[in-house]
Amino acid sequence: MNFRSFTIPKKKTGGPSSAAPKTVPVQQEPVEIHSDEGSPLTGKTGQTGRTTVNPPLDKGKGKMGEVGPDALEQLANDSPSRSSQLEEKLKRSEAHNRELQDLTIRQLEEMDNLSRMAGATQAEILRLKEENLKLMEDLDSKELEFPDRAKQWVGENLEETTRVITSIPEVTMEAFKFIYREPNGKEMVTQVGSYGFMSGQKRDLEATHAILAEQDSAFSADAYGLAPIPDEEPEPPFPLE
């Protein structure tokens, strides 16, 4: 829809007068409005479809939202510096991100190493537990078998055992005490003592008889109440050689 402008005719007054007020005409500009929606228009409308409105107060100024030449020039001057700053900031951000990625990778590797070490440590602990359990079982077994093995060793090493028992008088005395507590040991100790006593008695009787015979030519054991000298030497309970 097109509107054409028209000029309002000036009104003439009747007769000249110096005191009459003068009317200053305001320059009006035609505005062409294209409307497809048929919205109502305000102001006077002529037959041509144009309306006359007062010129805008901000004529010659930029519209709201538009960038003026001064702003464009300032933006053009500031663009290299701003671009450099943004580029430097981007580089720092990228370097920081790389550092974070490297740190994350190192931490993951460290966690993997720790996990492997933990697995190896756990396996070593299990192995040590198994070895300790085996040693404990062996120790219990040896403790149970020790008396029998000691008896066997003593029976197979009598000479060495005797040498140890008779190395110190106190040890010998303690050993004979234990021997005397056993039935066979008591009998053997008695036989050894009897043999020693009888061997000493024969020698003593021989010496006593010899001395008395020198002093008394009519010496007789019965007259002095002495036991006769045995004809044979007492036999030891075991071979002495």
UniProtKB/TrEMBL annotation:
<feature type="region of interest" description="Disordered">
    <location>
        <begin position="1"/>
        <end position="98"/>
    </location>
</feature>
<feature type="compositionally biased region" description="Basic and acidic residues">
    <location>
        <begin position="85"/>
        <end position="98"/>
    </location>
</feature>
<feature type="compositionally biased region" description="Polar residues">
    <location>
        <begin position="42"/>
        <end position="54"/>
    </location>
</feature>
<protein>
    <submittedName>
        <fullName>Uncharacterized protein</fullName>
    </submittedName>
</protein>
